[in-house]
Amino acid sequence: MTFNFENSKKLALGKKDKSSIRGVDAPIRNLVSFVNAHDDYFTTSSCSGRIVLIKDEDKKQKGLFLFRTHEKISFEKLKEALEKIAGEDKKIMVMFKQEPCLLVVSCRDKDSQWKLFSFARNNGWKKSGILSVDKKFLIELMATETISFPIIDGGKILVSDDFLKLVLEKANKNLKKGWEKIKRLEWLMEKP
Predict the structure, then answer these.
(1) What is the domain count for the chain?
(2) What is the C-alpha to C-alpha distance for residues 139 and 80, in angstroms, rounded to an integer?
(3) H or E stretch at 11
(4) Residues 143, 126 contacting (CB under 8 angstroms)
(5) CATH number reported for the structural domain that contains residue 21 in this entry
(6) How many CB atoms within 10 Å of residue 183?
(7) Which of 11, 90, 93, 158 is the most buried (most CB within 10 A)?
(8) Can you give the residue range of the structural domain that contains 155?
């Protein structure tokens, strides 16, 4: 069976959003619109970057995310979330993660795939990769800014407030860097 790009794009863009946040994050919304308006591309997944507190599990399952934001966050709000989580379940390990912006794109063919992949890699999306070179011609565009470490174990917060403030400052800066990369790619994609 051959890949029908036009039909796949129509079906994908007509589907109800199944993401847990039920929509596209505001900082990446314009880029998603530009990609989807292009004749040779459509998005299958996107994230503008986020800070999460997540159960340390091998498999993706319901209830993994204990806290999530796609915005910069204050120390007070994060500390409040940590204390709440630590007090609720004494048996789990919780990870702090700041994850970079991400965009998964289906391309019309190998030429359009390579063009967008190269374009993104040369403009700050350094962890990008080609996911499929047959059928859907998928690429994953990803920035590099990331932080990950265990933060709660056995109901105990594992880091000091000073360390948490330092990490949070870096995480918030990383989100901002990702948003700048989104804006740059958006600007480059809208140029003729």
Answers:
(1) 1
(2) 38
(3) helix 5-14
(4) yes
(5) 3.30.1960.10
(6) 14
(7) 158
(8) 5-190
